[in-house]
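User: Please fill in residues for this 308-position structure.
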């Protein structure tokens, strides 16, 4: 008997060790691809941000010169790019996030079949945004009298002559916000919808028995606290989507860069230096700044929606 127990005890650590090793084997493909596609490019980008690199010649180290030039020798960045990016991110990020939550909450109140159809209708623009932007929205906001919006305003005698919606820098930025808000119901919307649907309905019944008075209290005291993981995921996706936007103004205006750099965002600026001017070191520094901005706003989201 003792001999049997000894043999079992001796075999147990080996079994645990084998199970632990098999776990690492299963996650090895993910780790390899994560290192190759995320960690390594990010590290190389950070290194290149301290160099002058024109794609043809070997990178030469120039210290923090790129970062100094961004904030001292690049008037377009401080005057246009940074304000446009922050305005765009602060409106599209929270605005799209709030709109996605409201639409998801409304859909939950509807019958299942109707909810499914409306969810598909709301989600489709996020997949067809680029196509619809160049086909529908440019016709809608066309600067001549044949544009749908200008034609309507002229027929109602609200304007005397067509408005150049896509050529006026100030108006172009506002049109961008409308277009992107319309097409922003992507994964964050689906995550919020799934989160609300998965809340146990008996919690609401118990809350009303305990004195819950209206639907607003229901949202703030039950719905949001019960789906913090989905809220956090949706917030992160909204922030990343807002900051990584590019090419919207150029697609709407039909020119790159757009008139007087209206709607010119940091990713547009980065792509311009990387693929038009071939200053990869400078573009890498812009990418690092963008990464820090996304990280900072994601930390705010984590503090707001982390589970207690």
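Assistant: Residues filled in for all 308 positions:
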């Amino acid at each position: 008997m003792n001999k049997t127990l000894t043999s079992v005890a001796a075999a147990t650590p080996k079994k645990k060790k084998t199970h632990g090793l098999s776990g690492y084997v299963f996650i090895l493909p993910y780790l390899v691809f994560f290192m190759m596609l995320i960690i390594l490019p990010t590290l190389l980008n950070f290194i290149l941000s301290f160099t002058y690199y024109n794609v043809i010649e070997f990178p030469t180290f120039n210290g923090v010169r790129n970062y100094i030039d961004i904030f001292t020798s690049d008037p377009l960045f401080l005057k246009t790019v940074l304000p446009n990016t922050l305005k765009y991110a602060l409106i599209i990020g929270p605005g799209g996030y709030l709109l996605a939550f409201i639409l998801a909450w409304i859909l939950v109140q509807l019958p299942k079949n109707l909810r499914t159809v409306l969810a598909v209708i709301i989600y489709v623009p996020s997949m067809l945004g680029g196509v619809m932007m160049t086909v529908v929205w440019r016709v809608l906001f066309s600067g001549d009298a044949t544009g749908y919006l200008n034609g309507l305003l002229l027929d109602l005698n609200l304007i005397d002559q067509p408005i150049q919606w896509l050529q006026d820098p100030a108006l172009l930025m506002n049109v961008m916000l409308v277009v992107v808000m319309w097409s922003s119901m992507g994964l964050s919307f689906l995550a919020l919808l799934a989160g609300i649907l998965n809340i146990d309905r008996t919690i609401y019944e118990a809350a009303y028995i305990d004195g819950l008075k209206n639907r607003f209290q229901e949202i703030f005291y039950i719905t949001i606290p019960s789906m913090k993981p989905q809220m956090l995921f949706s917030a992160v996706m909204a922030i990343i989507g807002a900051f990584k936007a590019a090419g919207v103004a150029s697609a709407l205006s039909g020119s790159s860069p757009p008139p007087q750099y209206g709607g010119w965002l940091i990713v547009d600026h980065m792509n311009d230096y990387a693929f038009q001017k071939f200053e990869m070191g400078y573009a890498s520094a812009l990418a690092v700044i963008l990464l820090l901005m996304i990280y900072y706003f994601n930390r705010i989201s984590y503090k707001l929606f982390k589970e207690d």
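For context: The CA atoms of residues 41 and 172 lie 34 Å apart.
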